Amino acid sequence: MAPMGIRLSPLGVAVFCLLGVGVIYHLYAGVISSRISSFRQRRTVSLRDVLALSIEAAVKGGREVKRIREENHLEEKSKGETKEGASEKLTLGDLSSHRRMFFLIKNTYPFLQVNSEEHDDAEGDPGVWSHDIPNEVKQKIPEDREVAADRITVWIDPLDATQEYTENLRKYVTTMVCVAVDGEPVIGVIHKPFTGYTAWALVGSGSNVMPRAEYSTNPPKVIVSRSHAGKVKDFIEEAFGNNTVIIPAGGAGYKVLALLDPPDEEYEEADIYVHVTFIKKWDICAGNAILKASGGHMTTLKGQEIDYSGHEKNEGGLLASVKVDHKALVDRLPKRDLDKH
C-alpha cells in the first residue's frame, strides 16, 4: 500500500505559511533590531571635527566673497525690503560663498540639518572636507566629544553685512558658521575675508578669542546696526542715559567681535550690543556661541535664551554682553512693545 500523504486545505496552507513567517520573525527580529539600533548609534559626529569643518567652510566661503568684491563683479540685486523699509541686497558673493559653504558641509555630513541664508537648491559644489584639523584647535581642544547627528542644527551665513559689502565697507563683512545642539549654540566661527582673521569657539572646550580686561555699563558703549537700527537711539538713551555712546556698525558678526578682544585692529570697542528689530538666526548664532564660550550672554531683550533648533526668525530683539551682570542690563531696558521700535 502506498504511504498516505497529508493534504492541507488552502486555509491550512495559509496558516502553515503564517506560522513559518512568525517563527522566522522571532528568530531574526532581534538581530535586525540590534543592527538598526547599532546603525543609529553610529550616526554620531565629532564636535572637534565639525568645528574644523566649520572653520574650513567659513574660510573657503570668505575667499569667494573676497574674490568677487575685488573683481568688482557683484551682480547686485534686491531680495526685497526689511520690516524697517531697508533694501535687502543679494550679490554673487552671497551665492558663491553659499555654494562653497553649504555643499562642503553637506558633502561631508549629508545627514545634518543645515540652514543657510541663501537657497540650498543652488548649483552644487564638488568640494569635500580636507579632514585637516588646525593645530590651534588640537592644542586648545585636546579631548573630543561625540554628539548624535539628529540633535544638531547647523546655521551658515555666507556673507554677513551684504549692504556694507556693496558699499565696499569691507571691515564689517564676515562669513559665519554655527552648530547648535538641542537648540543651544555650541560651535561658533566668524571669519573676516579681507583680513584673514577667524574667531572660533567650542563651548565648554576652548576658543581662540577672549574678553577684554574691562567693560563699563555706567554708561556703556553700545554697538547697534547702521542699516536696520529702528528707533534704537531713543530706546538706548531711555535705558542708559543721554550720555551713552552709540556706535553704528554693519554686520552682526562684527558687532559681536567688538565686545571681545580679537587680534584685529579694525574693531571699535563696545560694551554691549543691542538690536531692537527682527533678525535672522544665521546672523547671530555663531556670535552667541563665541560669547557663551567666553562667559558672555546673548538673549532677547527680555532676557530669554534663543532657541536655534526651530524656525529662522528671532523677533524678540537682542542684547549681548560679556563680563557684566547681564540680568541687570535686561532690567534697565524699557518695557515697551518692540514693534513700536
Feature tags:
alpha+beta; 341 residues; five-stranded mixed sheet; D-Maltodextrin-Binding Protein, domain 2; Fructose-1,6-Bisphosphatase, Chain A, domain 1; six-stranded mixed sheet
Q: Can you offer a commentary on this structure?
A:
The chain has 341 residues and is an alpha+beta fold. It folds into two domains: 162 residues, 2-Layer Sandwich (Fructose-1,6-Bisphosphatase, Chain A, domain 1), CATH 3.30.540; 120 residues, D-Maltodextrin-Binding Protein, domain 2 (3-Layer(aba) Sandwich), CATH 3.40.190. 35% of the residues lie in helices and 22% in strands. The chain is built from nine helices and 17 strands. The strands form five sheets. The protein has a six-stranded mixed beta sheet. Strands 12-11-13-17-15 form a five-stranded mixed beta sheet. Strands 1-5 form a two-stranded antiparallel sheet. The longest helix has 33 residues. The chain is globular, with a radius of gyration of 26 Å. The N and C termini lie far apart (103 Å). About 7% of the residues have low confidence.
Task: List the SSEs and their pairings.
Layout (H helix, E strand, L loop, with lengths): L9 H33 L1 E3 H25 L5 E5 L5 E4 L1 H17 L4 E4 L18 H6 L5 E3 L3 E9 L1 H5 L7 E8 L2 E8 L6 E5 L3 E2 L13 E5 L6 H9 L4 E5 L2 H6 L14 E4 L3 E2 H13 L3 E3 L13 E2 L3 E4 L4 H7 L9
Parallel strand pairs: 4-6, 11-12, 11-13
Antiparallel strand pairs: 1-5, 2-3, 6-7, 7-8, 8-9, 9-10, 13-17, 14-16, 15-17
